[in-house]
């Protein structure tokens, strides 16, 4: 396919890179990538060996010594050039995201646009790595704080956003003076190869050293090399709660730092005072977009009993009109799940729901229609449920929307917060008191809380992340840059005396 060629994707691709150089073309162990569209093989990528991994880390350590001394605005200019290069390859990279991951082409383009947006944001941030000046109690002393890069930032990303989440970390970490080692998902390795090829053009053009943007490829074992490695002070990991607990334990044992973006069990409260049509449109995208495989996907719908039936019927109407099929086709709104394991996980969840007394209002079945070439397609499901059921408490990475009734707003908030995850949240209401209550300290306990906006589709200007079992990390905008740096407090004595703080007298002869 032409877009693969333009992105430098070959039949077999070296999966280890220090930026301008790639390693592993002769390695025997390979990782095969299959498109979920029809399960055909796209290409192979070599798996990073332990020897190659250590070479990457050593090269990154060497590059850091040089990169950290480049003025931050100059580092920002490199990121600006990466953003320009991404613009040139937006359509091809967006198509690869769709082909390898399965999200519709519009979402593939949107993911690359997120990369471009974070590059633009990072360029501005490179001139705003602000510290503070404090007032010293000692005469003719100056106190201030400044921020320094940590070193190597290890980035572990997931299949559902195979390029954007990497860029949230990498571009901000880069302008802070860090160097990056990226391990993408073993389900989408070609996206990592393509991004590395794009970035390599900028690095070569500017005659920069190897080791600033690095790539490794492999399964859980390769990721464990990173989390156990004391040479990597920060690990930013996106994935399941189970994975996050292991990462936190391993990195914490060596007193390293983590940014964790883990599971979401996101809910929308729909008030009797809501604009129901607006709510329905937001719910539809949040629940079926990316075939329910976003960490911010809408999974629970907490609806006031007075409008429950009306909204349920409207959602069924919308779901019936959703086109399911090849995500590269323009009229498709829902593509396939990532693989057969995801399909089986959805069927298991629906069976558990029925056992607990829930009803499948619409959808949920596997689709084996003749026009669908693979077997990873499902019909998004609308079901009735109770918030406390075990299956509702867990995140199923598939398009299942749980409909839950409530009577008063305090009950709605209690149900909303009554799960262990805390990523994204929303309320649809035209009632000012309900809106402000939801955003107050007694309202949503999530890292993201919206009013009359769905749970899915965050902008890069705000810090992205969640609370509770979602991990507590923050990426992307606002002051998330601070997580990639270390704070240093400085005191300068420009007097000819040596007074001590707190007025302590300590005279020596």
Automatic annotation (TrEMBL):
Q: What is its EC number?
A: 1.2.1.3
Protein name per UniProt = aldehyde dehydrogenase (NAD(+))
**InterPro entries, per this entry?**
Ald_DH/histidinol_DH, Ald_DH_C, Ald_DH_CS_GLU, Ald_DH_N, Aldehyde_DH_dom, ALDH7A1-like
Residues annotated as coiled-coil are: none
Protein family per UniProt? Belongs to the aldehyde dehydrogenase family.
| Active-site residue numbers | 261
In its keyword annotation, does this UniProt entry include NAD?
A: yes
Pfam families from the xrefs?
Aldedh
UniProt keyword Oxidoreductase, yes or no: yes
Question: What quaternary arrangement does the UniProt entry report?
Answer: Homotetramer.
Residues of the Aldehyde dehydrogenase domain: 27-489
Provenance organism: Fodinibius salicampi
Sorted alphabetically, the keyword list is:
NAD, Oxidoreductase
């Amino acid at each position: 396919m032409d877009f693969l060629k333009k992105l430098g994707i070959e039949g077999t691709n070296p999966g280890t890179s220090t930026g301008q150089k790639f390693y592993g073309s002769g390695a025997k162990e390979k990782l095969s990538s299959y498109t979920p569209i029809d399960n055909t093989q796209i290409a192979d990528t070599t798996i990073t060996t332990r020897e190659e991994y250590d070479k990457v880390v050593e090269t990154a350590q060497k590059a850091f010594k040089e990169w950290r001394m480049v003025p931050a605005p100059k580092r920002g200019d490199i990121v600006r050039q990466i953003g320009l290069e991404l613009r040139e390859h937006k359509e091809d990279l967006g198509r690869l995201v769709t082909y390898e991951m399965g999200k519709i082409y519009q979402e593939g383009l949107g993911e690359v646009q997120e990369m471009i947006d974070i590059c633009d944001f990072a360029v501005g941030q490179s001139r705003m790595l602000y510290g503070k000046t404090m007032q010293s109690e000692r005469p003719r002393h100056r106190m201030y704080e400044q921020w320094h890069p940590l070193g190597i930032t290890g980035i572990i990303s997931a299949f559902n956003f195979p390029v954007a989440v990497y860029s949230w970390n990498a571009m901000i970490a880069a302008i802070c003076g860090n160097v990056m080692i990226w391990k993408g998902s073993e389900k989408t390795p070609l996206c990592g190869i393509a991004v590395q090829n794009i970035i390599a053009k900028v690095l070569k053009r500017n005659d920069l050293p190897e080791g600033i943007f690095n790539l490794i490829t492999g399964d859980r074992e390769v990721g464990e090399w990173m989390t156990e490695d004391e040479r990597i002070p920060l690990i930013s990991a996106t994935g399941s709660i189970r994975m996050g607990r292991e990462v936190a334990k391993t990195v914490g044992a060596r007193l390293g730092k983590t940014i964790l973006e883990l599971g979401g069990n996101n809910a929308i409260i729909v008030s009797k005072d809501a604009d129901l049509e607006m709510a329905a449109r937001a719910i539809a995208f949040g629940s079926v977009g990316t075939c329910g495989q976003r960490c911010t996907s809408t999974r629970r719908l907490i609806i006031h009993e007075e409008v429950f039936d009306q909204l349920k019927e409207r959602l069924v109407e919308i779901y019936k009109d959703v086109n399911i099929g090849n995500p590269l086709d323009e009229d498709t709104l829902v593509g396939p799940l990532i693989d057969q394991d995801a399909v089986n996980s959805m069927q298991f969840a629906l069976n558990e729901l029925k056992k607990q007394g829930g009803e499948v209002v619409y959808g949920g079945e596997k689709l084996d229609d003749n026009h669908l070439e693979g077997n990873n397609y499902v019909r998004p499901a609308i079901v009735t449920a109770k918030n406390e059921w075990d299956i509702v408490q867990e995140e199923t990475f598939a398009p299942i929307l749980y409909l839950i009734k409530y009577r008063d707003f305090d009950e709605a908030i209690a149900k909303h917060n009554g799960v262990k995850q805390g990523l994204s949240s929303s309320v649809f209401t035209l009632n000012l008191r309900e809106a402000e209550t939801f955003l107050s300290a007694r309202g949503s306990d999530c890292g993201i809380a919206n009013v009359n906006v769905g749970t899915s589709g965050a902008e890069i200007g705000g810090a992205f992340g969640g609370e509770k079992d979602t991990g507590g990390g923050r990426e992307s905008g606002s002051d998330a840059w601070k997580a990639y740096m270390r704070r240093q407090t400085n005191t300068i004595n420009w007097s000819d005396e040596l007074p001590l703080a707190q007025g302590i007298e300590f005279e020596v002869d």
